[in-house]
Each structure stands twice: as C-alpha cells, then as structure tokens.
Amino acid sequence: MVFWNESTDCCSWAGVTCDWSNGHVIGLHLSCSHLHGTIHANNTLFHLCHLQSLNLAFNDFNFSTISPDFGSFASKLPYFNVTSSLQFLDLSETSFFGQLPNSISNLKALNILYLFNCNFPGSIPASLGNLTQITNLGFADNSVGGQIPSSISNLVKLNGLYLDGNNFNGQIPDSLGNMSQLTDLFLSRNQLTGTIPSLLFALPSLVVINLSNNNLSGVVELDKLLNLKYLSYFDLSYNGLSLNINNSVNSTLTTFDTVRLASYNLSEFPNFLREQTRLRSLDLSTNKIHGEVPKWLFNVGKDSLQNLNLSYNFLISLEHLPWKNLCLSVLNLGINSFSGTFTTTFTKGNLLRNLNLNGNQIKGQVPRSLLNCEYLEILDLGKNKINDTFPQWLETLTELQVLVLRFNRFHGHIGTFKTKSKHLFPKLRIIDISYNEFTGLLPTNYIEQFEAMTNVDEHELKLKYMGEYYYQDSVVVMMKGYEIEYSRILTVFSIIDLSSNKFQ
Question: Which residue from 207, 200, 328 is spatially nearest to 256, judged by alpha carbons?
C-alpha cells in the first residue's frame, strides 16, 4: 500500500504527477500498490477532473464491476463524459468484472487502453471505433467473445492490437488490412475461422503477427510474408493452415527474431532460414520433416539463437549435431527418430537450460559433460534406450528442477542410507524414473533430502510457471500408469514417480 503524507503537497507524493504550471493532478500511477476492495461511484478518484493518465494495474479490486465513472474525467464540467481528457488507462490484472461499459467510447482523447487479464465477458462494443486517437488497444487474456467488430478499422492511428487469449469467433475482418500504421497484431488463442485476409500480408508497418492456436484455414504464401520489410516475429502455428514454400527463391529479409511454424505438414526446412542472422526463437515442431538436421541450421542466428524446437518430426543422426557450438538455452528434439549412442560433449560456459530428447532411440550412457550445463533446469531423457546407472552425480546441478528418465534401461541401486548432502538436488521438484530396472531398497531416505519438494517459500505460492518470460516449458510424466502432459509447469508443483521398477 502506498503511504502519502497529507501534510505535504500532493504533487510530491509517490505515483502522483502534476502540471507544474497550475498544480492540477494529471497523472496517477498506482500499479502494484496492494490496493484492494471495490471502487464505488462516490470515490474521490473521480473528482480528479484534470486527470490524463491513470494506471491501476496489478491490484485487487475484488471482482467489482468497472465503474462508468471512469469515463467522467474532464478538463471542464467534471461529470460530462464527452469532454474527458484521459489519455492513458491501464486496468490490467485488477480483477474487475462485468461488461465493458459503452461510456468507454466517450474517452475521445484516449491514446492507450490496456485491460490485460481482467474478467471482462461479452463482446467489444462497436462504439470503440470512435476512439480515433488511440494507438494501443489491449484486451488480451479475458473472456471477450463474439466477432471482432469491423469498426476497429476506424482506429487509423493504431500501432498495437492485442486481442489474444479470448473467445473471439468468426472471421478476421478484411478491414484490418486497412490499418496502415499497425505494427503489432496479436489474435492468437481464440476461435477464429476462415482464411487470413490477404491484405494483412501487405500491411506496410507490420513487425509482429501472431495468429496461432485458432481454427484458420487456407494457404499462406510464404513469399508474401517475406515481402514485409519490417516483419521480425510471426507465429501462425496450430491452425488448419498450409504453407506454400518456394525454396528456389532466396529471401532478402534477414531481420527475423522469432519464427514459429508448428503443425504445418512441412517436409523440409524452409530455405529462407539460411539467411537469418538475428534469429532468437525457431519452432518447427509437429511437422513431417525427415532426415538429418542440415548443418546450415546451426549457423542460423549463431550468436543469438536461444530457443530451438524441432520436436514431433522424423529427424535422425543425433551424433551429427554440433553440440560444442550450441549456445541455446532451450533445445527440444523430443519425439523424433534420433538413434545412436549418447556421446555428446557439452562444453563449459554453455547456457543450456532445457534439454528434451524424449521419445527417440538413443543408446549409451548419460554423458557426464552435462555437469558443464550449470544453468540446466529441465532434463528429459524419457522413452529412449539409455543403459546406465542412476546419474547421482547430477545432484550438483543446483538449478535442476525437472529430471525425467522413464522408459529406459537404467539399473542398479539409488542412493544409500549413508547418503548425506547439504546440496542434494536443491531445486528438484519433478523426478520420474518409472519403467526402468532399478533394484534395491526403495530410496526413501535419499528422496527425503530433496528439500525443494518439502520447503516452499511463501513468495512462490502465487501462480508462477517455469520459463514463463521467455519460453513455455512443458513436460510429460507418468501418473498412475497414464502419460500426462503439462504444457506449463508450476514452480511449486512436485511429482515423484518410482513405479514399474524392481525395488524391494
């Protein structure tokens, strides 16, 4: 909670901005201030008739409805909505609830409106198209449904449109292709259908386009995407789309940061990737790419590539991967046809954080050079043919949180009654060693020393996911004989699975 000294000038208070020419309060920025309760219509907040900027993000307003008085801020006649001077409104993460009021369209001076992750149901009022001065509009992660109103195209100054994570249905309005200043377009995680309007691929300022996880159909012409000279991020994954690739045409566009083309029935690596020197994230999972990983792929974004997901394909020849040169933080090669012996050498100083080789035909032992992966958080070697004893030496990896070794040929004892260590897997929360050939006594004494499973920091009790800021970590574990995939892993989540072994 913010503390204000009422004996001092309010313009000196934290979060308060004044117009120094006349002393009027024009800005109120109270995000993350532990505010809670209901905002009633008689709240003195609505007496700030000169307010231009209001930020109440990341507070808890007890699922109260958003008051129509938010539209009453005015520079003269304080309760005349139509004369509102408010320019910036951010109510994200505030637990407001209820239909977005039509009075929002009276905020004629509004430049930015952010309502991320609230509880707004219903639909976007068509009158929102009256906010002709707005440059950024965000409704992500709500329960807003219905069709995207074509009146949004009236917002000719719009740079960013964030409607992802809602219940929008119907087609993407053709009129969005007329928004010539649009740079960021996020429509992912909805229920949109039909084809992608061709005009979207001609927006001259487009930098980011994310249409993933919808029910879109039709053919995407890759050449049209590559003609967008400012485009750096595109994600069209998990739809019913197909991609028309002309691999004989080399792209001159080399500025991609993120490329995600998962679930496209691709049978080969697109050639335009060869020229990408700044790429940080590449997802070609759930396709039909077969054969060896081409050597040129590991020169793509050689000093910048952080996340590479090639899972659910038909790739082979694990030994040919240039492990010594990898500077990735996330490498997902799960569910492929990689075979051969796991003789990989990981060098010191690497940044690997997540290694997934699940569901292949890999043999041999777990390479001890994994000890050089000091930042490793997730190691998934499940469903292979690895023949080794339990890699107890991994306990010195202080960041390791998930260890999956199930469905292999691991054998021998795990730990002893004499095993005592102050640093025994200090952060491990998930361990699945089921369906192996481990013997001896059930290693209860050993597992009791996994402190992270028994000690939970109060600060970690809120919902927080591993890798949520830069990659969505996932893991498949066995529970009661069933494979269960967790697409996101809570940091306080714990699993121990020792089943289907030969313990006494």
Answer: 207
Of the candidates 89, 165, 91, 168, the one whose C-alpha atom is nearest the C-alpha of residue 123 is 168
Beta strand 112-114 with 88-90 is parallel
- pLDDT tens track for 50-79: 777 788 877 777 666 666 666 555 433 733
3 SS3 class: coil
Q: Are 310 and 338 in contact (CB under 8 A)?
A: no
**Other beta carbons within 10 Å of 265:** 11
CA angle 268–211–151, rounded 5-degree value: 150
| Residues of the chain with confidence (pLDDT) below 70 | 1-3, 21, 62-76, 78-84, 95-97, 247-253, 324-325, 416-423, 455-493
Q: Are 416 and 481 in contact, with CB atoms under 8 Å apart?
A: no
Which tokens is 56 given? 């109440």
Cα gap 157→152, rounded to integer Å: 11
Q: What is the DSSP string of 295-356?
A: GGGGGTTTTT--EEE--SSEEE-GGGS-GGG---SEEE--SS--EEE----PPTT----EEE
